[in-house]
Amino acid sequence: MQASDRFNINSQLEHLQAKYVGTGHADMNRFEWAVNIQRDSYASYVGHYPMLAYFAVAENESIGRERYNFIKCFCPVVFHLREKMTELEPTEILDTGS
């Protein structure tokens, strides 16, 4: 593998990471990555009707109830991050750790 090939692969990876949130980046911690995975999973379950129907049959619930439960589970994940950021002092948010 030549140096130019490595540069091309790295630039493609950086482009994908900038374009899609779920691909992550070097500074992403484990919590942010897990939240992205969970959020994407719930959004996929709600957005794909056959998957939603599968969960509804497996849990013996209506499809509407399953959709509601997934959306209800999805929202606290998003709001937890917002609460976490509001609990911090402004100086803690801007602190770079140096």
UniProtKB/TrEMBL annotation:
Gene Ontology annotations of biological process type: mRNA splicing, via spliceosome
Signal peptide interval: none
Entry-linked Pfam families: SF3b10
InterPro entries: SF3b5/RDS3-10
Highest taxon in the source lineage: Eukaryota
GO CC terms, sorted: precatalytic spliceosome; U2 snRNP
PANTHER family (UniProt xref): SPLICING FACTOR 3B SUBUNIT 5
Name of the protein this chain belongs to: Splicing factor 3B subunit 5 RDS3 complex subunit 10
Organism encoding this protein: Olea europaea subsp. europaea
